[in-house]
Amino acid sequence: MKTIREATVNKMTLRLVQTSSDFAGVIWSGGSKKFEVRGADADAIWDQLQSEVGRAGPNYFGYGGARKAFLHWFAGAFQSPAYLRDERDYKVNAKRILEKAAPLELAATGSGFGEAILAAYRSLNLLYPIEKTRLQKLLRGADADSFVRAAARFALGDRKSALATMDKLLQPHDNARWTVVTFLPFLWSPDTEIFLKPEVTKEFASRVGHRFEHDYESALSLKVYESLLDMAGEIALNFQDLEPRDLIDVQSVIWIVGGYRDGVELPQA
Fold this sequence. Notes:
Strand order of the largest sheet: 1-2-3-4
Number of strands: 4
Order of helices and strands: EEEEHHHHHHHHHHHHH
Largest sheet: 4 strands, antiparallel
Distance between the termini: 40 Å
């Protein structure tokens, strides 16, 4: 047998081993084996180990706890007037303004949308002020069109090359951040794209035991975003009876359950 991957999480050791016929994943804690799984797909085994160790974390309460926490704040779920006022309507309004000022298809190939895009970033409180300030120089400079086109291509499904382009353009401004690169695709195309606020999203992942907690890195890697989309799919499935409309609603679940109300303890499952 050959160990091909190993990590320590929450004082537990995750080990992926290649045997003569398949792969084995094992979790060790305190010198004893706590969990074992075997299979033919090494990546799937590793993902399962990460999910299993997540369920042993101190913040874990699963999707049952996530639903309870969400409904604690919004008993009417996604149709609650309070939810619509506090979490959804202002984003939908910003989306309408963006679509009118910089239609997605035109933004993907056109030019001269820099000021409209800067206004979109400023219209919501999803970014930190310093991130918005650093965007001003980019969106009023020579690279504005290239950045807008890349963000639009991302929203249209060309994620890998678009993400690389945005990363390259944002690096000189010390602004290559997940919040910045996911904001526009999220507003343009909330049926397929989601906004990433790292800390609260990692916190949510730890509470439901999703591997995103371990997959996340600040570098703009497509693997991170794909892990987030996987978790978004899990959320939509576990909340489907509450009828989330799109990833605006899914992202709101992450934000609410991740604990954005400072000093308030969320209900435990």
